[in-house]
Amino acid sequence: ASARPFSTGIGVGLVGFGLFFLLFGILLYFDSVLLAFGNLLFLSGLVFIIGFRRTFTFFFQRPKLKGTSFFFGGLIVVLMRWPILGMLLEAYGFISLFRSFFPVAFGFLGSLANIPLLSQVRGDSGSMV
């Protein structure tokens, strides 16, 4: 009795497999086929989770166009079988796209567990009292 639609579960699975293939492609010395497959699975899972329109509007907002162009440019370069350069371009695009999300994610992870590095990034004193 879940309130989530069925497509959200499919999207989470696709994103999970996409991240797995990306990690596996990096571990196998930047195998371009695995990296390309991981990218496509990740993006299709994102579409299943938040919908096509919201995905499109997220990537093509005016302030995020530079990050989007680097991300998709890196995807194209990976598909052209230049995996190291493509992953560098994608990483820069990913960081510039999700720059505003990182403090929220670090704060959430730091609140789940008392992780010293994340607590220092947030600026906590480190005491549990």
From TrEMBL:
Where is the protein localized?
Golgi apparatus membrane
Tell me which Gene Ontology terms the entry assigns under biological process: endoplasmic reticulum to Golgi vesicle-mediated transport; retrograde transport, endosome to Golgi
| Keyword Transmembrane helix included in the entry's annotation | yes
Per the record, its GO cellular-component terms are: cytosol; endoplasmic reticulum; Golgi membrane
Q: How does it sit in the membrane?
A: Multi-pass membrane protein
Which branch of life, at top level?
Answer: Eukaryota
The keyword S-adenosyl-L-methionine appears for this protein = no
Regions crossing the membrane: 12-30, 36-56, 68-89, 101-118
**Stated name of the protein:** Golgi transport 1A
